[in-house]
From TrEMBL:
InterPro entries: Put_SAM_MeTrfase (IPR004159), SAM-dependent_MTases_sf (IPR029063). Keywords: Glycoprotein, Membrane, Methyltransferase, Signal-anchor, Transferase, Transmembrane, Transmembrane helix. GO terms for molecular function: methyltransferase activity. Belongs to the methyltransferase superfamily. It holds the Pfam family Methyltransf_29. GO terms for cellular component: endosome; membrane; trans-Golgi network. The keyword Zinc does not apply. This is Methyltransferase. It comes from Quercus rubra (Northern red oak).
Length: 609
């Protein structure tokens, strides 16, 4: 007999009908509640855009994992993830060698460095990553402690955390750093800061009042930064400085900077482009930074021109500016010729009361000067095809970067004054349909998520956090949402996702390009919190997740945190590896994995975990 409703009634199977009806109603209710909008799931698979760029960015953002939901106003606690005794054991070993404690795989590859045919252009200070990646764990220096809190750390750090005395002796007459008992103390001196860095910072603003620290000038690059006191004291003026220097004979200067809680990275102007986008920095500073700007046809200065924002300034404080000896004057004449060919204008040149001088150049805001130049061969204009923001393992160019224009041919404007630029439309944001709406939605998404989840419901002691890295930063929304905390964020744009790093700089934030299949240019134990939002989905298709975890362990401080927002498939892959490192793990809403690193390191006889 056919199964129909009349037949069921005739056979008095009313309970079956009632049960079936209840099930259908419950199913319909579940579908309805799961399709309601949720503040923690910004982009869905149904989102479309007419813009190819916008669509590419959408596809790189979270689309499928279930968002965390609040339980009728009662915050759900993060749950502890216990180690699974049946997980495969990992045979961890300590790194060995003279540099093991401060091992940086891509900068300490001595075999590759020894095989270099030339070192004239600092090739030995550039990246030479080993293959395969080393899977050893860096040992801790003897007596290592939890770092001093900010802002105390700006002026003093534990000596045992960065036990490098060479710079103390080498720069003892210039007040870079002093050893005092258990501490390294940073008095705020420098080669060019004879009256102290605060006086020097004020001297620059008096020389050129239009810099308006912390309003007009917000994002700075400090070349050859020493121990980064210049950038450290500019933080008081709402200026964020990317301090950089190579790993060289000025032992551990970048490690000192990061231990102090000051933004810094290891890099060198050698044969390859810096890992920053075009037109990024408001001001670039060099105080006796030992870079030969006119070398190799002027490539080093042309690289600064590439990353300097139109209308931005280059502050050069060096002996050729204010000394009359033959060597210095020859360098000055070469700089005059080079900057003239680049259409840079001298807007100030002066000497302070201590006898230290500086010159301030400004990059043009209009291409009219480029068209009027008589000698274009000295610094020809780059081809239009070279205009893409791509600087990962790219050789330096001997050409002048074109001024940036949007898709309609309009020159970019200077960003809004700080702090408005943080939340206003970035000049480099795509003009294509949907891009502006996506930017504002992303800003709100991270503001809500950080407020509702990161600051209140995760097992993080934010008072112990200073140096933060966002490993997959998108528009920099996570960093923007943390702006009122006493932290700074290094925003990383992976090389295999849509390039949004220019937008991050437009917002008054800092960042770099990086490939997470390789080691990062930083010392061990330099970050308090590593954050990744849906990074591993694409990354696991290109490299082994174990290598990424080893690198995260290398750069995270003992007592530091990782926060991984991802789906449970990824979290289940990461958890056993992190447990094998003796990290404590908690999980919030099946989407946020929080790991806390301890002081454990493998010892002889205890290699397996």
């Amino acid at each position: 007999m056919a199964i129909t409703v009349p037949n069921l009634i005739k056979e008095r199977k009313f309970p079956f009908i009632l049960t079936l009806s209840v099930l259908l109603l419950c199913f319909a209710f579940l579908i309805f509640t799961n399709t309601k909008s949720n503040p923690y799931l910004l982009f869905t698979t149904s989102t479309t855009s007419t813009s190819t760029t916008t669509s590419a960015l959408q596809s790189s953002l979270p689309s499928s994992p279930s968002p965390p939901r609040q339980n009728d106003g009662v915050a759900a606690a993060a749950v502890v993830i216990n180690a699974d005794p049946n997980s495969p054991r990992i045979d961890w070993k300590l790194c060995k060698g003279t540099v093991a404690v401060d091992f940086i795989p891509c900068l300490d590859n001595f075999k590759a460095i020894k095989a270099l045919k030339a070192r004239r252009h600092m090739e030995h200070r550039e990246r030479h990553c080993p293959d395969p990646n080393p899977r050893c764990l860096v040992p801790l220096p003897a007596g290592h402690r939890i770092p001093l809190p900010w802002p105390k750390s700006r002026d003093m750090v534990w000596y045992n955390n960065v036990p490098h005395p060479k710079l103390v002796e080498y720069k003892k007459d210039q007040n870079w750093v002093r050893k005092s008992g258990d501490y390294l103390v940073f008095p705020g001196g420098g080669t060019q800061f004879k009256d102290g860095v605060i006086s020097y910072v004020e001297f620059i603003e008096r020389t050129l009042p239009t810099v308006e620290w912390g309003r007009h000038i917000r994002v700075i690059l400090d070349v050859g930064c020493g121990v980064a006191s210049f950038g450290g004291y500019l933080l008081d003026k709402n200026v964020i400085t990317m301090s950089f220097a190579p790993k060289d004979e000025h032992e551990a200067q970048i490690q000192f900077a990061l231990e102090r809680g000051i933004p810094a990275t290891l890099s060198v102007i050698g044969t390859q482009k810096l890992t920053f986008p075009d037109n990024a920095y408001d001001l670039i500073h060099c105080a006796r930074c030992r870079v030969h700007w006119d070398a190799d046809g002027g490539k080093p200065l042309l690289e600064l021109n590439r990353i300097l924002r139109p209308g931005g300034f280059f502050v050069w404080s060096a002996t050729p500016v204010y000394r009359d000896d033959e060597r210095d004057q020859n360098i000055w004449k070469a700089m005059v010729a080079l900057t003239k060919s680049m259409c840079w204008k001298v807007v100030a040149r002066t000497v302070d009361s201590s006898g230290i001088g500086l010159v301030i150049y400004q990059k043009p805001v209009s291409p009219s000067c480029y068209e009027k130049r008589k000698n274009n061969n000295y610094a020809p204009l780059c081809d239009q095809k070279d205009g893409k923001n791509s600087s990962w393992y790219v050789p330096l160019s001997h050409c002048l970067s074109l001024l940036p224009v949007d898709s309609k041919g309009n020159l970019f404007s200077w960003p809004m004054p700080w702090p408005k630029r943080l939340s206003s439309k970035p000049p480099s944001l795509s003009t294509e349909s949907g891009a502006e709406e996506m930017f504002y939605e992303d800003t709100k998404h991270w503001s809500d998520l950080v407020s509702d989840v990161y600051l209140n419901n995760l097992t993080i002691n934010w008072s112990s956090v200073r140096n933060v890295m966002d490993m997959n930063a998108h528009y920099g929304g996570f960093a923007a949402a943390l702006i009122d905390l006493p932290v700074w964020v290094m925003n990383v744009i992976p090389i295999d996702v849509p390039d949004t790093l220019s937008i991050i700089f437009d917002r008054g934030l800092i960042g770099i390009y990086h490939d997470w299949c390789e080691s990062l240019n930083t010392y061990p134990r330099t970050y308090d919190l590593l954050h990744s939002s849906f990074l591993f989905r694409n990354l696991t298709q290109r490299c082994d997740v174990l290598d990424v975890i080893v690198e995260m362990d290398r750069i995270l401080r003992p007592g530091g945190y990782i926060v991984v927002q991802d789906n449970m498939e990824i979290i289940n892959k990461l958890s056993p590896i992190l447990h094998s490192l003796h990290w404590s793990l908690t999980l919030y809403k099946d989407q946020f994995l929080i790991g806390k690193k301890g002081f454990w390191r493998p010892t002889i006889g205890e290699s397996k975990s």
